[in-house]
Amino acid sequence: MFVNRQFRPLTDAALISLAVAVCYYAAGRLGLLGRLVVEGVVATPIWPPTGVAVAALLLFGARVWPGIALGSFLVITSLTTPGPTTAVTVVSNTVAPLCAFLLLRRADFRLDMARLRDGLSLIFLGGFGAMLISATAGVGLQVVKGSLDRSEFWAVWLAWWAGDTMGVLLVAPLLLVLAGPSGRFRVRRWKEAAFLGLTTLVLVPLAVLSPMGLLFLVCPLLVWAALRFQLAGSMLCALFASVFATVVATSDHGSFSHLSDVEIMVKLQTFNGSAALTALLLASVITEQRATRRSVRHACEELAEVLEHLAVGEPSPAPPTGPPPEPSESRQAPPGGLRDPCPSASTTDPLNGGCGAHGRVVGPGGGGP
Protein backbone atom coordinates (compact mmCIF):
# COMPACT_ATOMS: atom_id res chain seq x y z
CA MET A 1 0.00 0.00 0.00
CA PHE A 2 2.81 2.42 0.84
CA VAL A 3 4.56 1.65 -2.46
CA ASN A 4 1.37 2.28 -4.42
CA ARG A 5 0.85 5.63 -2.73
CA GLN A 6 4.47 6.57 -3.36
CA PHE A 7 4.35 5.85 -7.10
CA ARG A 8 0.84 7.16 -7.75
CA PRO A 9 1.94 10.83 -8.15
CA LEU A 10 4.53 9.71 -10.70
CA THR A 11 1.90 7.71 -12.57
CA ASP A 12 -0.53 10.62 -12.58
CA ALA A 13 2.17 12.99 -13.84
CA ALA A 14 3.12 10.55 -16.60
CA LEU A 15 -0.48 10.14 -17.75
CA ILE A 16 -1.13 13.87 -17.71
CA SER A 17 2.11 14.51 -19.61
CA LEU A 18 1.12 11.95 -22.21
CA ALA A 19 -2.28 13.61 -22.63
CA VAL A 20 -0.58 16.99 -22.99
CA ALA A 21 1.75 15.55 -25.65
CA VAL A 22 -1.23 14.22 -27.63
CA CYS A 23 -3.05 17.57 -27.41
CA TYR A 24 0.13 19.44 -28.36
CA TYR A 25 0.67 17.25 -31.43
CA ALA A 26 -2.99 17.54 -32.51
CA ALA A 27 -2.90 21.32 -32.10
CA GLY A 28 0.34 21.46 -34.07
CA ARG A 29 -1.14 19.51 -36.97
CA LEU A 30 -4.15 21.83 -37.01
CA GLY A 31 -1.91 24.90 -36.93
CA LEU A 32 0.09 23.65 -39.91
CA LEU A 33 -3.05 23.69 -42.04
CA GLY A 34 -2.89 27.49 -42.15
CA ARG A 35 0.82 27.99 -42.76
CA LEU A 36 2.35 30.72 -44.88
CA VAL A 37 5.75 31.01 -46.52
CA VAL A 38 7.73 34.10 -45.48
CA GLU A 39 11.15 34.57 -47.07
CA GLY A 40 11.24 30.88 -47.97
CA VAL A 41 10.49 29.77 -44.38
CA VAL A 42 7.21 28.15 -43.34
CA ALA A 43 5.42 30.22 -40.67
CA THR A 44 2.03 29.80 -39.02
CA PRO A 45 -0.03 32.93 -38.22
CA ILE A 46 -1.54 31.07 -35.25
CA TRP A 47 0.48 28.37 -33.48
CA PRO A 48 -2.03 26.65 -31.13
CA PRO A 49 0.50 24.38 -29.35
CA THR A 50 1.90 27.33 -27.40
CA GLY A 51 -1.55 28.05 -26.00
CA VAL A 52 -2.01 24.37 -25.16
CA ALA A 53 1.37 24.28 -23.39
CA VAL A 54 0.78 27.44 -21.33
CA ALA A 55 -2.73 26.34 -20.32
CA ALA A 56 -1.48 22.87 -19.33
CA LEU A 57 1.27 24.34 -17.17
CA LEU A 58 -1.16 26.71 -15.46
CA LEU A 59 -3.65 23.91 -14.79
CA PHE A 60 -1.33 21.03 -13.82
CA GLY A 61 1.95 22.69 -12.87
CA ALA A 62 5.50 22.38 -14.13
CA ARG A 63 5.45 18.59 -13.85
CA VAL A 64 3.90 18.29 -17.35
CA TRP A 65 6.88 19.80 -19.18
CA PRO A 66 7.95 16.35 -20.53
CA GLY A 67 4.63 16.19 -22.37
CA ILE A 68 5.34 19.55 -24.00
CA ALA A 69 8.79 18.41 -25.08
CA LEU A 70 7.43 15.12 -26.43
CA GLY A 71 4.65 16.88 -28.35
CA SER A 72 7.12 19.35 -29.85
CA PHE A 73 9.39 16.50 -30.93
CA LEU A 74 6.49 14.67 -32.57
CA VAL A 75 5.45 17.78 -34.51
CA ILE A 76 9.00 18.35 -35.77
CA THR A 77 9.46 14.73 -36.82
CA SER A 78 6.19 14.89 -38.76
CA LEU A 79 7.67 17.70 -40.88
CA THR A 80 11.30 16.73 -41.33
CA THR A 81 13.89 14.14 -40.39
CA PRO A 82 15.23 14.68 -36.85
CA GLY A 83 18.75 16.06 -36.70
CA PRO A 84 21.14 17.72 -34.27
CA THR A 85 19.19 20.99 -34.45
CA THR A 86 15.96 19.27 -33.43
CA ALA A 87 17.06 19.25 -29.80
CA VAL A 88 17.54 23.03 -29.82
CA THR A 89 14.06 23.58 -31.26
CA VAL A 90 12.47 21.19 -28.77
CA VAL A 91 14.24 22.89 -25.86
CA SER A 92 13.20 26.38 -27.00
CA ASN A 93 9.58 25.28 -27.54
CA THR A 94 9.57 23.85 -23.99
CA VAL A 95 11.42 26.65 -22.21
CA ALA A 96 9.22 29.43 -23.63
CA PRO A 97 5.95 28.10 -22.10
CA LEU A 98 7.79 27.31 -18.87
CA CYS A 99 9.01 30.91 -18.64
CA ALA A 100 5.47 32.10 -19.35
CA PHE A 101 4.19 29.89 -16.53
CA LEU A 102 6.80 31.13 -14.05
CA LEU A 103 6.21 34.79 -14.95
CA LEU A 104 2.45 34.44 -14.63
CA ARG A 105 2.75 32.67 -11.29
CA ARG A 106 5.08 35.41 -10.12
CA ALA A 107 2.46 37.99 -11.13
CA ASP A 108 -0.26 36.19 -9.07
CA PHE A 109 -2.18 35.15 -12.17
CA ARG A 110 -5.66 33.74 -11.53
CA LEU A 111 -7.04 30.97 -13.70
CA ASP A 112 -10.52 32.48 -13.85
CA MET A 113 -9.03 35.70 -15.29
CA ALA A 114 -11.57 37.77 -13.37
CA ARG A 115 -9.28 40.79 -13.14
CA LEU A 116 -7.87 43.20 -15.68
CA ARG A 117 -4.37 42.54 -14.38
CA ASP A 118 -4.78 38.86 -15.30
CA GLY A 119 -5.50 39.76 -18.90
CA LEU A 120 -2.59 42.19 -19.02
CA SER A 121 -0.27 39.62 -17.46
CA LEU A 122 -1.22 37.00 -20.03
CA ILE A 123 -0.67 39.46 -22.86
CA PHE A 124 2.62 41.02 -21.84
CA LEU A 125 4.23 38.22 -19.80
CA GLY A 126 2.83 35.02 -21.23
CA GLY A 127 2.53 36.22 -24.82
CA PHE A 128 4.74 39.13 -25.79
CA GLY A 129 7.54 38.40 -23.35
CA ALA A 130 7.98 34.64 -23.06
CA MET A 131 7.50 33.91 -26.75
CA LEU A 132 10.62 35.93 -27.54
CA ILE A 133 12.60 32.86 -26.48
CA SER A 134 11.13 30.42 -28.99
CA ALA A 135 11.16 32.92 -31.86
CA THR A 136 14.74 34.02 -31.27
CA ALA A 137 16.04 30.48 -30.83
CA GLY A 138 14.15 29.08 -33.82
CA VAL A 139 15.04 31.80 -36.32
CA GLY A 140 18.57 32.18 -34.96
CA LEU A 141 19.09 28.48 -35.53
CA GLN A 142 18.05 28.90 -39.17
CA VAL A 143 20.61 31.68 -39.59
CA VAL A 144 23.36 29.61 -37.96
CA LYS A 145 22.60 26.66 -40.21
CA GLY A 146 22.81 28.90 -43.25
CA SER A 147 19.30 28.13 -44.45
CA LEU A 148 18.28 31.73 -43.80
CA ASP A 149 20.10 34.90 -44.73
CA ARG A 150 20.78 37.52 -42.05
CA SER A 151 18.87 40.15 -44.00
CA GLU A 152 15.76 37.99 -43.76
CA PHE A 153 16.08 37.46 -40.00
CA TRP A 154 13.64 40.13 -38.78
CA ALA A 155 10.82 39.33 -41.20
CA VAL A 156 10.88 35.64 -40.32
CA TRP A 157 11.44 36.37 -36.63
CA LEU A 158 8.39 38.67 -36.51
CA ALA A 159 6.20 36.04 -38.21
CA TRP A 160 7.42 33.30 -35.83
CA TRP A 161 6.98 35.46 -32.71
CA ALA A 162 3.51 36.67 -33.75
CA GLY A 163 2.35 33.11 -34.44
CA ASP A 164 3.48 31.84 -31.02
CA THR A 165 1.97 34.89 -29.30
CA MET A 166 -1.38 34.49 -31.05
CA GLY A 167 -1.46 30.87 -29.92
CA VAL A 168 -1.13 32.00 -26.31
CA LEU A 169 -3.64 34.85 -26.55
CA LEU A 170 -6.33 32.98 -28.49
CA VAL A 171 -6.07 29.37 -27.29
CA ALA A 172 -4.89 29.54 -23.66
CA PRO A 173 -7.74 31.74 -22.31
CA LEU A 174 -10.36 29.56 -23.98
CA LEU A 175 -8.87 26.39 -22.50
CA LEU A 176 -8.73 27.97 -19.04
CA VAL A 177 -12.38 28.99 -19.29
CA LEU A 178 -13.44 25.52 -20.44
CA ALA A 179 -11.47 23.91 -17.61
CA GLY A 180 -13.10 26.17 -15.00
CA PRO A 181 -16.60 25.94 -13.54
CA SER A 182 -19.27 26.41 -16.16
CA GLY A 183 -21.66 29.26 -15.69
CA ARG A 184 -25.42 28.81 -15.46
CA PHE A 185 -27.32 30.14 -18.48
CA ARG A 186 -31.00 30.82 -18.48
CA VAL A 187 -33.20 30.01 -21.47
CA ARG A 188 -33.08 33.58 -22.74
CA ARG A 189 -29.27 33.52 -22.50
CA TRP A 190 -29.18 30.39 -24.65
CA LYS A 191 -31.38 32.09 -27.19
CA GLU A 192 -29.10 35.11 -27.24
CA ALA A 193 -26.02 32.89 -27.50
CA ALA A 194 -27.54 31.05 -30.47
CA PHE A 195 -28.40 34.35 -32.15
CA LEU A 196 -24.85 35.62 -31.55
CA GLY A 197 -23.43 32.42 -33.03
CA LEU A 198 -25.57 32.68 -36.15
CA THR A 199 -24.65 36.33 -36.57
CA THR A 200 -20.98 35.45 -36.25
CA LEU A 201 -21.27 32.67 -38.82
CA VAL A 202 -22.78 35.14 -41.28
CA LEU A 203 -20.90 38.35 -40.56
CA VAL A 204 -17.34 37.02 -40.24
CA PRO A 205 -17.27 35.35 -43.68
CA LEU A 206 -18.87 38.44 -45.17
CA ALA A 207 -16.19 40.68 -43.65
CA VAL A 208 -13.24 38.44 -44.51
CA LEU A 209 -14.28 37.35 -48.00
CA SER A 210 -15.21 40.84 -49.14
CA PRO A 211 -12.49 42.39 -51.35
CA MET A 212 -13.40 45.83 -50.01
CA GLY A 213 -11.65 45.23 -46.68
CA LEU A 214 -14.56 45.01 -44.23
CA LEU A 215 -12.61 43.35 -41.43
CA PHE A 216 -13.68 46.07 -38.99
CA LEU A 217 -17.18 44.56 -38.96
CA VAL A 218 -15.87 41.88 -36.59
CA CYS A 219 -15.30 44.41 -33.80
CA PRO A 220 -19.02 44.88 -32.89
CA LEU A 221 -19.33 41.10 -32.57
CA LEU A 222 -16.41 40.99 -30.15
CA VAL A 223 -17.90 43.81 -28.07
CA TRP A 224 -21.31 42.11 -27.99
CA ALA A 225 -19.81 38.76 -27.00
CA ALA A 226 -17.66 40.33 -24.26
CA LEU A 227 -20.52 42.36 -22.80
CA ARG A 228 -22.99 39.51 -22.63
CA PHE A 229 -20.86 36.35 -22.28
CA GLN A 230 -17.53 37.65 -20.98
CA LEU A 231 -14.39 35.62 -21.69
CA ALA A 232 -16.00 32.46 -23.06
CA GLY A 233 -18.07 34.26 -25.69
CA SER A 234 -15.48 36.83 -26.71
CA MET A 235 -12.61 34.33 -27.07
CA LEU A 236 -14.74 31.90 -29.08
CA CYS A 237 -15.74 34.70 -31.41
CA ALA A 238 -12.16 35.97 -31.72
CA LEU A 239 -10.77 32.48 -32.33
CA PHE A 240 -13.32 31.74 -35.05
CA ALA A 241 -12.67 35.07 -36.78
CA SER A 242 -8.88 34.60 -36.63
CA VAL A 243 -8.97 31.01 -37.90
CA PHE A 244 -11.33 31.89 -40.75
CA ALA A 245 -9.20 34.88 -41.71
CA THR A 246 -6.09 32.68 -41.67
CA VAL A 247 -7.70 30.12 -43.98
CA VAL A 248 -8.78 32.83 -46.41
CA ALA A 249 -5.35 34.50 -46.28
CA THR A 250 -3.51 31.26 -47.12
CA SER A 251 -5.76 30.80 -50.17
CA ASP A 252 -5.20 34.39 -51.36
CA HIS A 253 -8.86 35.37 -51.49
CA GLY A 254 -11.11 38.13 -50.19
CA SER A 255 -9.48 40.89 -48.21
CA PHE A 256 -6.04 39.31 -48.69
CA SER A 257 -6.05 39.01 -52.48
CA HIS A 258 -3.34 40.58 -54.66
CA LEU A 259 -0.89 40.95 -51.76
CA SER A 260 2.63 39.68 -51.29
CA ASP A 261 3.50 37.09 -48.67
CA VAL A 262 4.89 39.69 -46.27
CA GLU A 263 1.87 41.96 -46.76
CA ILE A 264 -0.51 39.08 -46.14
CA MET A 265 1.34 38.17 -42.94
CA VAL A 266 1.35 41.76 -41.67
CA LYS A 267 -2.32 42.36 -42.44
CA LEU A 268 -3.38 39.01 -41.02
CA GLN A 269 -1.38 39.36 -37.81
CA THR A 270 -2.69 42.90 -37.32
CA PHE A 271 -6.25 41.61 -37.57
CA ASN A 272 -5.60 38.60 -35.32
CA GLY A 273 -3.83 40.73 -32.72
CA SER A 274 -6.59 43.34 -32.69
CA ALA A 275 -9.26 40.67 -32.28
CA ALA A 276 -7.40 38.87 -29.50
CA LEU A 277 -6.56 42.02 -27.53
CA THR A 278 -10.08 43.44 -27.86
CA ALA A 279 -11.73 40.21 -26.75
CA LEU A 280 -9.33 39.52 -23.90
CA LEU A 281 -9.07 42.99 -22.36
CA LEU A 282 -12.73 43.93 -22.73
CA ALA A 283 -13.90 40.64 -21.26
CA SER A 284 -11.46 41.01 -18.33
CA VAL A 285 -12.69 44.53 -17.56
CA ILE A 286 -16.34 43.51 -17.66
CA THR A 287 -15.73 40.42 -15.53
CA GLU A 288 -13.86 42.48 -12.94
CA GLN A 289 -16.63 45.10 -12.80
CA ARG A 290 -19.29 42.45 -12.33
CA ALA A 291 -17.28 40.78 -9.58
CA THR A 292 -16.85 44.15 -7.84
CA ARG A 293 -20.57 44.85 -8.11
CA ARG A 294 -21.40 41.46 -6.61
CA SER A 295 -18.97 42.07 -3.75
CA VAL A 296 -20.48 45.48 -3.00
CA ARG A 297 -24.02 44.05 -3.10
CA HIS A 298 -23.02 41.21 -0.79
CA ALA A 299 -21.38 43.65 1.64
CA CYS A 300 -24.51 45.84 1.66
CA GLU A 301 -26.71 42.84 2.37
CA GLU A 302 -24.49 41.77 5.26
CA LEU A 303 -24.50 45.32 6.65
CA ALA A 304 -28.30 45.47 6.43
CA GLU A 305 -28.56 42.19 8.33
CA VAL A 306 -26.22 43.46 11.04
CA LEU A 307 -28.21 46.68 11.44
CA GLU A 308 -31.45 44.73 11.59
CA HIS A 309 -30.09 42.49 14.35
CA LEU A 310 -28.84 45.51 16.28
CA ALA A 311 -32.22 47.23 15.99
CA VAL A 312 -34.07 44.16 17.23
CA GLY A 313 -31.73 43.56 20.17
CA GLU A 314 -31.46 47.22 21.34
CA PRO A 315 -32.90 47.75 24.90
CA SER A 316 -35.72 50.28 25.38
CA PRO A 317 -34.69 53.63 26.89
CA ALA A 318 -35.20 53.78 30.76
CA PRO A 319 -35.88 56.90 32.85
CA PRO A 320 -32.72 58.55 34.12
CA THR A 321 -31.68 57.61 37.67
CA GLY A 322 -29.11 59.07 39.99
CA PRO A 323 -28.37 62.49 41.42
CA PRO A 324 -29.90 65.53 39.73
CA PRO A 325 -27.69 67.45 37.40
CA GLU A 326 -25.62 70.22 38.83
CA PRO A 327 -26.73 73.79 38.15
CA SER A 328 -25.31 75.40 35.09
CA GLU A 329 -22.52 77.89 35.18
CA SER A 330 -24.96 80.79 34.71
CA ARG A 331 -26.76 79.81 37.97
CA GLN A 332 -23.63 79.67 40.07
CA ALA A 333 -22.32 82.59 42.06
CA PRO A 334 -19.24 84.28 40.70
CA PRO A 335 -16.12 83.99 42.78
CA GLY A 336 -16.13 86.44 45.67
CA GLY A 337 -19.67 87.68 45.03
CA LEU A 338 -23.29 86.89 45.84
CA ARG A 339 -25.62 84.88 43.74
CA ASP A 340 -28.75 86.53 42.49
CA PRO A 341 -31.63 84.90 44.41
CA CYS A 342 -34.15 86.22 41.93
CA PRO A 343 -33.92 84.53 38.61
CA SER A 344 -36.73 86.66 37.23
CA ALA A 345 -37.80 90.27 37.86
CA SER A 346 -41.48 89.28 37.94
CA THR A 347 -41.03 87.32 41.20
CA THR A 348 -38.90 89.84 43.04
CA ASP A 349 -39.87 91.43 46.30
CA PRO A 350 -38.36 94.90 46.89
CA LEU A 351 -38.95 94.50 50.62
CA ASN A 352 -37.08 92.37 53.13
CA GLY A 353 -33.77 92.75 51.43
CA GLY A 354 -34.97 91.31 48.14
CA CYS A 355 -34.45 92.51 44.59
CA GLY A 356 -35.37 95.92 43.43
CA ALA A 357 -37.69 96.71 40.55
CA HIS A 358 -34.82 96.31 38.21
CA GLY A 359 -33.38 93.26 39.97
CA ARG A 360 -30.43 95.08 41.68
CA VAL A 361 -28.75 93.28 44.53
CA VAL A 362 -29.06 95.19 47.83
CA GLY A 363 -27.56 94.58 51.18
CA PRO A 364 -29.28 93.22 54.28
CA GLY A 365 -30.10 96.79 55.48
CA GLY A 366 -32.06 97.57 52.35
CA GLY A 367 -30.34 100.94 51.58
CA GLY A 368 -31.40 103.03 48.64
CA PRO A 369 -29.51 103.79 45.47
SS strand fraction: under 5%
Distance between the termini: 117 Å
How many strands appear in the DSSP assignment? 2
Mean pLDDT score, rounded? 82
The order of strands across the largest sheet is: 1-2
Which class do the helix and strand fractions yield?
mainly alpha
* Number of H- or I-type helical stretches: 10
Radius of gyration: 38 Å
What kind of sheet is the major sheet?
2 strands, antiparallel
The ordered string of helix (H) and strand (E) elements is HEEHHHHHHHHH
What is the percent of helical residues?
Answer: 55-70%
**Uncertain residue segments:** 327-369
- How does the overall form come out from the CA principal axes? globular
Task: Describe the fold and architecture.
The chain is mainly α and 369 residues long. Helices cover 66% and strands 2% of the residues. The protein has 10 helices and 2 strands. It has helices at 2-31, 48-60, 65-79, 84-106, 116-129, 131-145, 153-179, 187-209, 218-250, 261-312, and strands at residues 36-38, 41-43. A two-stranded antiparallel sheet has the order 1-2. Strand 1 (36-38) and strand 2 form a beta hairpin. Helix 3 (65-79) packs antiparallel against helix 4 (84-106), helix 4 (84-106) runs antiparallel to helix 6 and helix 5 packs antiparallel against helix 7. The protein is globular. The model is unreliable at 327-369 (pLDDT under 50).
